[in-house]
Design goal:
Structural class: alpha+beta
Number of helices: 4
Number of domains: 1
Mean pLDDT: 89
Strand order of the largest sheet: 2-3-4-5-1-6-9-8-7
Order of helices and strands: EHEEEEHEEEEHH
Number of strands: 9
């Protein structure tokens, strides 16, 4: 039985609006340098990821649960005596798979290029991440504590047509998300042009203490190449793994995936479910 057939999905759409899925791990500190990335890691995956690009580094992430008025861990200003670290993209031949590596971060992406590819499902992407992450860990050297995962996150990005009656206008987000008013509450205001939204939810551990956060955001955008109005609905589950093992990282991904797909189904309207072909 293949990984993609191992177990049923908690939620299934015939035509899911998923545009990109990202599985990411942040390390305690810099654990690999530019030489190690290019000399050791890339050769181990180059057969499947021949493309190579440089990108600005991602900033560190942290979820703060300090009480109001208490000092938060924050993110300090960093001063470099050398150029800042680089984030590398290693891209598959069809450009749908992407490995991202920087000194303190590893990520694995699936994405639609140019937008018609079938979403391969989480069950297929999870073992792909595990394989590429194992090769990355094998290349790490130096401080073993720096190489330990501090945060991990799973992200689903959905591109959803706005379907407004007015050309070039997004219209109410309530067409897509439940619990929003379809019209403005102030009669003197004109029709809604677009809406932005962010919601945060605390993820709790077995002792009912916060160990991460779930984010749902919606922003208006325009689709390339036809400039059609869309809403980009992003769902992120970010948290601390229970320990430093890869198995713990994967367990968080499993929990985050379930939060994302169930939360997406419960947050979106019946009209959208019909459009996407909800099966379960």
């Amino acid at each position: 039985m293949s990984p993609a057939e191992a177990e049923p999905d908690p939620v299934t759409f015939e035509h899911p609006p998923v545009n990109e899925v990202i599985l990411s791990v942040q390390l305690e500190g810099p654990a690999i340098d530019e030489v190690g990335v290019l000399a050791d890691y890339w050769p181990s995956i180059r057969g499947d990821f021949p493309g190579h690009q440089k990108q600005p580094p991602l900033p560190p992430v942290v979820e703060d649960f300090s009480p109001p008025g208490q000092p938060s861990p924050g993110i300090g200003v960093q001063f470099f005596s050398a150029p800042p670290p680089v984030r590398y993209w290693f891209v598959s031949s069809d450009e749908t798979r992407l490995v991202q590596v920087q000194a303190d971060r590893f990520a694995y992406n699936w994405r639609q290029i140019p937008g018609k590819e079938t979403y391969p499902r989480y069950r297929e992407l999870k073992p792909e991440f595990e394989k590429r992450y194992a090769a990355f860990l094998a290349c790490l050297a130096g401080d073993s504590e720096a190489a330990q995962p501090s945060w991990c996150e799973i992200t689903y990005i959905n591109h959803i047509e706005a379907r407004s009656e007015v050309s070039g206008v997004h219209g109410p987000l309530s067409r897509i998300l439940r619990g929003l008013k379809s019209e403005t509450t102030a009669p003197s205001l004109p029709a809604i042009e677009d809406t932005q939204l962010q919601q945060r939810f605390r993820i709790l551990d077995s002792a009912q203490k916060p160990m991460g956060r779930f984010y749902l955001t919606a922003v208006p955008a325009f689709r390339a190449p036809d400039a059609a109005p869309i809403y980009v609905i992003t769902l992120i589950a970010r948290g601390k793994p229970a320990d430093t093992s890869t198995e713990s990282v994967l367990r968080f991904f499993d929990r985050g995936r379930d939060l994302i797909v169930n939360g997406f189904k419960e947050s979106t309207t019946d009209a959208m479910h019909d459009l996407w072909g909800l099966k379960s």
